Amino acid sequence: MQANLDGLSPETPYSDGVKIVKVAVAVPLSRTFDYLPRGELKNYHPGCRVVVPFGRSTRIGVVTGTGNTTLVKSKLKAVTELLDPVPVLPADIVELITWAASYYHHPVGEAFATALPVQLRKGSSNEVQRPGAYVVTDAGKETAEVKRAPAQTALLRFIQQSVGAVSAAECRLFDNRWSTTIKPLIKKGLVEKIVADYRPGRAPVSITLNEEQRLASEKIHANIDKYYCALIDGITGSGKTEVYLDVARTVVKSGGQVLVLLPEIGLTPQLVSRFRNALACQVEVLHSGLNDTERMLAWHAAADGSAQVLIGTRSAVFTPMPRLEFIVVDEEHDGSLKQQDGFRYQARDLAMMRARKAAVPVVLGSATPSLESLHNASKGLIDTLYLRSRAAGAVLPKMALIDSRGGDVEQGLSNRLLLQMKQVLERGEQVMVFINRRGYAPVLMCETCTSIEDCSQCDAHMTVHANSGRLRCHHCGAERAIPLQCGSCEASTLINVGMGTERIDEYLSEKFPDNKVLRIDRDSTRRKGELQKHLAMAANGEAQILVGTQMLAKGHNFPLVTLVGILDADRGLFGADFRSVEQMGQLILQVAGRAGRAEKPGTVLVQSRNPEHELLQLLLSDGYSEFAKHLLAERELTAWPPYVYIALLRAESAEKAAASKFLGEIKNLIGSQLAQNSDLAEIKSQLSVLGPAHAPMERLAGRYRSQLLILSKDRKPLHTVLAWLRPTLEMHPSARKVRWSLDVDPYDML
Ligand code: ADP
Ligand code: ZN
Q1: What are the φ and ψ backbone dihedral angles of 523, each rounded to 5 degrees?
Q2: Mapping DSSP to helix (H, G, I), strand (E, B) and coil, where does residue 135 land?
Q3: The pLDDT value given to residue 199
Q4: Distance CA 704, CA 690 (A)
Q5: 215 pLDDT above the threshold of 90
Q6: Does residue 246 have its Cβ closer than 6 Å to ligand 1?
Q7: CA–CA separation, 667 vs 661, rounded Å?
Q8: How far is the CA of 471 from the centre of ligand 2 (A)?
């Protein structure tokens, strides 16, 4: 039955009951591959790597199991080499990856490849040399500054302020060029490398939790030895991290391990230090800034149990942890927890599945929870723990909406905002101006003929980058020099339309010549180490006006900021994506959360061209939870997630109609499969297939994109049809003419 739905013929016993090894190989096919064992079958444990013949070459794969049936009719080939006597992946991780591959309908071999550190994926030995770590010497303790070497001074201070020894990975998180910076520090006798394992510096530090934090912590403690999922719905600065730490302290004390997942942008050296300080144990980090060796070392430390805490981004969810007892997903609403290409998994959802399988508690934290989590909470699937006041006595900022359509707007900034900026700056406090658009201006237009400079490869305008004198496409990366004449009418009347961070920076620098303006966006922090430098200048008050994109929105703590201006709040109101409004609300509140983090109260001014918009007003007057309730009701009414389950089949091609044509064929195929197959009759009425439709931006990087949306009210019908569809697509002749991908629970519809 199942085999029929797969579109494949059923497996049959291999000759004379000979045993077979099932191997996941990283190729774009859903199935595993069958081999005869070399040596004894009993050595082939799931999670061991093998080299196998594949086509005309060999590949490295992961054993998923053994058996005696196969799809292959001819004689099987034998494994070339068994690489690991002991599995590199323990049974629970093999199970998690296999489950994830089947849930996301992604080729299992590619899923394993995503989960393994690069070196293991390439077949390197699974033995690692224990790395050194860095501590300050007695002379280093006494040194406040290294003359004329700001980078060395910063790194020295970082090591001074850290508890115990600092690993290479943590040095890198602080300073991307750390390996160059640290050499002179060692030479001057200020820092030394120790080869021993982690040496705790002092006892764990704890603070007294407030009432709400205590209740939250107690609730998690009460469920510490079973699966339990809690959403900590706590405003920014309410002390969510302290609750995680309080539970983690108990777990670490009893010898357990803690996994902390967070979006890339939330992982800062300050956060790692907080964990080290509070727990006084070995804390390892995993993130995209590490090189392959550092990644492997952190992975190993978690896998062999020596690291008691692992803090990492998305893919850290697959790291083996033999004594895992507690999982945290911080900023659980953040879209970057969902991988947007290749193996498109959602790390938060996998963390919940992992916790369930391991029978341990998992905590999701956010000031602006995702609608999915709020919905799960309302169904009673997860518990909600509220933190409603700011810890450390700080108060929430006051928020106000400003109409930015009228005449009293100068260069995108309203007079009211400029006036308040002046007052705040005179008091010696900081201002943050948020605009989610980098570059100088989003449009270069000819005043004579009104034509606009567009990207030749995308359906998009080119963004003006005045500092570098270039026009850039933010979608495909194409660039060219800023022209002097219009490309259509050749008049020299090109003007910049609209505002970007560069232009706001320029304007505010002129307007407030006595204050330093610091721009923080992807362009100004592109060079290694630049982001840390900028954030430090922002935090210590060296710059008084911070202009930035959403890079500024998350996690960072700028105690001197008392005024936040949000310039383009309403772009999300009319977004093409069903999540646009949710994301707009989350972004506004995350940005607002940067104001008044210390004793001084803050103000947030939200400029909008649609100040009368009901949702914007609701968000500002009643807060996120009312806003979210409204959005959930709307999603239910319009049948969007989390009230339905969806998968997106995307296709693209350089040829104009090819992708749509292909998806049309697939839609018909699904229709006839549903009509013909009596096993599917039952789910037929519950499924809808919408499209094919052009992607909201049809042409990207020279390819035309189209999509098919498959949805159903319950999870099961969708997955039944996808289980048939995926292998069908892999075999379909037309599928070779386009690029296609299947995205289950998609985030980005573009
Ligand atoms: P969140 O994670 O919710 O944004 P944090 O845990 O970072 O909040 O807390 C915000 C600030 O308040 C931090 O500086 C933290 O040390 C401090 N803080 C948190 N809880 C307490 C408490 N119970 N007593 C004193 N300070 C606290
Ligand atoms: Zn482009």
Answers
A1: -75, -40
A2: strand
A3: 52
A4: 18
A5: yes
A6: no
A7: 10
A8: 11
Q: Per-residue pLDDT for 1 more than 50?
A: no
Q: What is the mean pLDDT of residues 606-614?
A: 91
Instruction: Assess contact for 52 and 77: CB atoms under 8 A.
Output: yes
Determine whether the shortest distance from the Cβ of 593 to ligand 1 is under 6 A: no
**Alpha helix (H) residue ranges in 38-136:** 91-103, 108-115, 118-121
Q: Which fold has domain 211-392?
A: Rossmann fold (3.40.50)
Which ligand lies nearest the alpha carbon of 473?
2
**Separation CA 571–CA 549 (nearest Å):** 13
Q: Which residues contact 128 (CB under 8 A, 6 or more apart)?
A: 296, 297, 300
Q: Record the tokens describing residue 44, joined without a space.
A: 């082939």
Helices (H), 413-500: 415-426
Q: pLDDT tens digits, residue range 664-704?
A: 999 999 999 988 887 777 788 899 999 999 998 899 999 99
Please name which of 209, 175, 237 lies closest in space to residue 557, comparing C-alpha atoms. Answer: 237
User: Tokens in use for 37?
Assistant: 């064992």
What pTM did the predictor assign? Answer: 0.90
| Separation CA 713–CA 664 (nearest Å) | 23
Q: Which CATH architecture has domain 394-441+498-625?
A: 3-Layer(aba) Sandwich (3.40)
pLDDT tens digits, 544-595: 999 999 888 765 778 889 999 999 878 888 877 889 999 999 999 988 888 7
DSSP class of 694: E
Does residue 260 sit in helix, strand or coil? strand
Ligand 1 contact via 64 beta carbon (within 6 Å): no
Look at residues 180, 239, 258, 461 and name the one whose alpha carbon lies nearest to residue 365. 239
CATH topology of domain 645-744: Alpha-Beta Plaits (3.30.70)
Q: What are phi and psi of 270, to 5 degrees?
A: -60, -40
> Do the beta carbons of residue 441 and residue 471 sit within 8 Å?
no
What is the SS3 string spanning 353-370?
HHHHHHCCEEEEEECCCC
Taking the CA of 367 as reference, the closest ligand is 1
Determine the atom of ligand 1 nearest the C-alpha atom of 245: 6
Give the residue with greater pLDDT, 427 vs 164: 427
Amino acid sitting at position 604: V
Name which residue sits closest to atom 21 of ligand 1, judged by CA: 391
Q: What is the CA radius of gyration of the chain?
A: 28
* Distances, alpha carbon 638 to alpha carbons 145, 268, 278, 606, 634, in Å: 60, 39, 46, 28, 6
The token pair that represents 339 in the structure block: 């991988």
Buried b vs exposed e over 438-476: b needs ≥16 C-beta within 10 Å? bbbbbbbbbeeeeebbbbebbbbbbbbbeeeebbbbbbb
Q: Return the structure tokens found at 713.
A: 């009210």
Task: Report pLDDT for 555.
Answer: 58
Cα 37 to ligand 1 centre (Å): 56
CATH of 2-121, one of 3.40.1440.60, 3.40.640.10, 3.40.50.720, 3.40.50.300: 3.40.1440.60
Mind listing the pLDDT tens digit for each residue in 504-544?
A: 999 999 999 999 999 999 898 888 778 878 888 888 889 99
Q: Atom 24 (ligand 1): residue with closest C-alpha?
A: 392
* Centre of ligand 1 from the C-alpha of residue 273, in Å: 14
As a whole number of Å, the end-to-end CA separation of the chain is: 36
- Among left, alpha and beta (phi > 0; psi -120 to 50; other), residue 296 is alpha
